Automatic annotation (TrEMBL):
Major localization class: membrane
Compartmental location: Membrane
Keyword Cell cycle: no
PROSITE patterns per UniProt: G_PROTEIN_RECEP_F1_2
Transmembrane domains' residue ranges: 20-43, 55-78, 84-102, 122-143, 163-189, 210-232, 252-277
Residues in G-protein coupled receptors family 1 profile domain copies: 34-274
Organism of provenance: Adineta steineri
Name of the protein described by the UniProt record: G-protein coupled receptors family 1 profile domain-containing protein
GO cellular component: membrane
Length: 325
């Protein structure tokens, strides 16, 4: 029995790193593509350019790109930097999601003094605050993490380990993120249901409804996909030292692979979630890719071939179509 267990342990140690690398790389490729498309759509649509909530969603996409690139690097040489960046990106993304929900609560509020809070100036400040918090939290990881050839980076400082395992992961990533983002997300959703009574332009109403739906969908899937990893980390950090059975260790780490993959999906799936659940966003993506970017590309190709007049000039119909968005 012990020989079978030893063989299974050796196979796990040999196979699991490659499985994690290829699985996360596959997820991250789709995530990079999706997050880039999110940024392209947010930049190219006129109705999105000066909207604070869209700014938060764009920053979230940029941070998720950074997370995807960092998570797929497996060099022991910069293990501490990788651990710091992953935790910093995760914290920034979490705060940005909460601020996006807060902004939509402000933007859809029936009270004018709350609607005034939804500004780009405030979004810039809160984004800078999020980045500062991410960097501030990353510094102790650089200082208190050590590299071990068998397991990678682990926290050696007992006080920081206590903070990380009992406060940062379960309270900040788990309870705080879930409660704050879902609270303001559902309050914004409640405001949107009553928005027809407010004296707001129809275009603005449609945009507020769309963005509230997108933020709420992002929050729901973020909680569903990240909460298993939070629970796993809390359990693993506090129990792993007391488990001596190698089969139990393997079982726990297999669960960890599944949970970490869900966390990577959380940073990669926002574009596809928006595309599936938001009809208006599908039309916007189609408009940007076919009516704007494709026409610009054809125009450049025509100019390279010394064509005097571009094959496709912007028509009034294009401007009218964009105005709908």
């Amino acid at each position: 029995m012990s020989s079978i267990t030893t063989t299974a342990t050796e196979k796990y140690i040999h196979i699991s790193p490659y499985f994690i690398i290829y699985l996360n790389a596959f997820i991250s490729i789709f995530g990079l593509f999706g997050n880039l498309l999110n940024i392209i759509v947010f930049i190219n649509l006129r109705s999105f350019r000066r909207n604070p909530c869209v700014f938060y969603l764009m920053i979230d996409a940029i941070v998720n790109i950074g997370f995807s690139i960092t998570a797929n690097s497996n060099s022991f040489i910069w293990c501490k930097i990788k651990t710091m960046l992953i935790n910093s990106f995760s914290l920034i993304s979490m705060l940005i999601t909460c601020f996006a929900a807060l902004d939509q609560f402000f933007a859809t509020s029936p009270h004018y003094y709350l609607r005034r809070r939804s500004t780009l100036k405030l979004s810039y400040r809160l984004t800078i605050l999020s980045i500062f918090c991410g960097i501030l939290f990353g510094i102790p990881i650089i200082l208190y993490c050590d590299i071990y050839s068998t397991v990678g980076c682990i926290i050696r400082n007992s006080r920081f380990f206590f903070y990380y395992s009992y406060i940062h992961v379960p309270l900040l990533y788990g309870i705080f993120h879930s409660c704050i983002s879902s609270l303001f997300g559902f309050l914004a959703f409640r405001n949107v249901r009553c928005i027809i009574r407010q004296r707001i332009q129809i275009v603005r109403r449609r945009l507020d409804r769309q963005l509230t739906a997108m933020v709420l969908i992002r929050i729901i899937f973020s909680i569903i996909l990240s909460l298993p990893y939070v629970i796993y980390c809390t359990y693993y950090l506090n129990v792993i030292d007391f488990i001596e059975n190698s089969v139990q260790v393997i079982s726990i780490r297999i669960i960890g692979i599944i949970c970490s993959s869900l966390a990577v999906i959380n940073t990669s799936a926002s574009f596809y979630i928006f595309l599936i659940f938001c009809t208006r966003y599908r039309h916007q993506v189609k408009f940007v890719l076919t009516k704007k970017l494709w026409k610009q590309l054809r125009k450049k190709i025509c100019l390279r071939h010394n064509q005097i007049k571009p094959a496709n000039e912007p028509s009034m119909n294009d401007y009218t179509t964009e105005a709908k968005f």
